[in-house]
Design goal:
Elements: H1 3-10, E1 22-28, E2 31-36, E3 42-45, E4 53-56, H2 59-66, H3 72-77, E5 82-85, H4 87-90, H5 93-102, H6 121-128, E6 136-139, H7 145-151, E7 159-162, H8 169-172, H9 175-182, E8 186-191, E9 204-209, H10 210-216, E10 233-237, H11 240-243, E11 261-265, E12 270-275, E13 279-286, E14 289-294, E15 304-306, E16 314-316, E17 337-341, E18 346-349, E19 354-359, E20 363-370
Parallel strand pairs: 1-4, 6-7
Antiparallel strand pairs: 1-2, 2-3, 4-5, 7-18, 8-9, 10-11, 11-20, 12-16, 12-19, 13-18, 13-20, 14-17, 14-19, 15-16
Length: 376
């Protein structure tokens, strides 16, 4: 198989997702190519003197990725694909692959540019409903699928389902036993002041052994007020080896779920106020996490911006823990809901709801985004 044209196809429209740089691919001791993103891309055999990103992967796995038979994030998590260099740039690899599969020309975009946030249907729904003043907490034994679809899903109303993980192997394991399942896995951790760059590729990302990272949580370095937040392993795909230890919640058809994500971090890790473009079921496996929620129709009051012209992932400049009412006077009218998730809880976070998330203690969580098609 001639890898040079395949890599050329991979990077043909890399600029459409804001990629500019040199990627070094290593397929074995004697086989390597480097690719310089551009129009057209440049692909050469051998080793580049100073690549931004280095990727080690087998030829067979690259063919699987390009053919849609392998997932680059799953290969990375299982250790079959290794990444070095600029991990912020490397995190765009799934988008580069998706663009290559679609083919054709694409308009260049900048992943770090802010765009005006378009309104959503969920804003109309929440504005037309009675104001939610608290998030109900209901035991899983009392919230079956029929009640969930009748009382919560149609109206986009958040709810905490307690004792929802009682059948999860990962939830019932002793911590040391569970670490054995993380031994050969790797993830991407966020470092530095990632809170200010939460939705940017300019963050300090690092490739880390999951087991080593979890072990490091037991002996965190001392922190002072004003220090940067602690390292956080956030939004990593749940590796195939761990899927048998969790269960997809019963509230949606399995085919509607996007591949679940895992979040691991010590006390103090924080994701600032934002909203996603899909319904979310958020499972708390270890520790505690606090959520601050705001209904979708409060968008104009929160200094909201989007990472894409069409919206999708929407960030906010307003900080509910340090409110600046001079800059955002309309935020005085926002009803913020505070929710504490305990181990075993499952939070239904409907599409469009703004949320800020902080680890109250050492925490492991799994979330399930859902292509539910609710109202949009």
């Amino acid at each position: 198989m001639d890898l040079q044209p395949l890599l050329g196809k991979l990077f043909a429209n890399a600029g459409a997702v804001g990629v500019a740089g040199t990627f070094q691919f290593v397929f074995g001791p004697q086989l390597a190519y480097w690719c310089e993103a551009g129009t057209p891309p440049r692909v050469e055999p051998g080793r580049h003197d100073a690549p931004e990103v280095t990727i080690e992967v087998s030829q067979a796995d690259l063919l699987g990725i390009m053919g849609g038979n392998a997932n680059v994030e799953e290969l990375f998590a299982s250790g079959r694909l290794k990444i070095g260099g600029n991990l912020g740039l490397a995190t765009l690899l799934p988008q580069i692959i998706d663009q290559a599969r679609k083919g054709g020309a694409a308009q260049k975009s900048d992943m770090n540019q802010r765009h005006v946030t378009p309104p959503r249907y969920s804003e109309h729904v929440s504005a037309s409903r009675p104001q939610v003043t608290e998030v109900q907490r209901i035991p899983a034994t009392e919230l079956d699928v029929e009640r969930f679809k009748r009382d919560f899903l149609p109206y986009g109303t958040p709810v905490v389902i307690s004792d929802a993980l009682r059948d999860w192997k990962l939830f019932n394991m002793e911590r040391q036993a569970s670490l054995e399942h993380f031994a050969e896995l790797q993830g991407i951790t966020r470092h530095g002041d990632y809170v200010k760059k939460t939705f940017s590729t300019e963050r300090d990302f690092r490739s880390t052994s999951m087991a080593d990272f979890i072990n490091s949580l037991d002996n965190p370095p001392p922190r002072n007020k004003g220090d940067e937040p602690p390292a956080y392993m956030g939004n990593n795909i749940v590796p195939a080896q761990l899927l048998e230890l969790i269960q997809y919640p019963p509230y949606f058809e399995r085919s509607l779920y996007i591949a679940p994500r895992i979040w691991i971090g010590p006390k103090g890790t924080l994701t600032p106020l934002h909203r996603d473009d899909a319904d979310n079921l958020f499972a708390q496996v270890w520790g505690h996490k606090s959520f601050i929620l705001a209904a979708p129709h409060y968008r104009p009051a929160l200094g909201t911006w989007s990472t894409s012209p069409k919206g999708g992932l929407d960030g906010c400049d307003f900080n509910p823990d340090a409110p600046d009412y001079q800059r955002f006077p309309e935020a005085r009218q926002v009803t913020f809901l505070r929710v504490l998730l305990e181990a075993g809880d499952l939070l239904f976070l409907p599409e469009g709801w703004f949320h800020q998330v902080e680890s109250v203690s050492t925490s492991l969580s799994v979330n399930f985004w859902v292509n539910s098609g609710r109202g949009w």
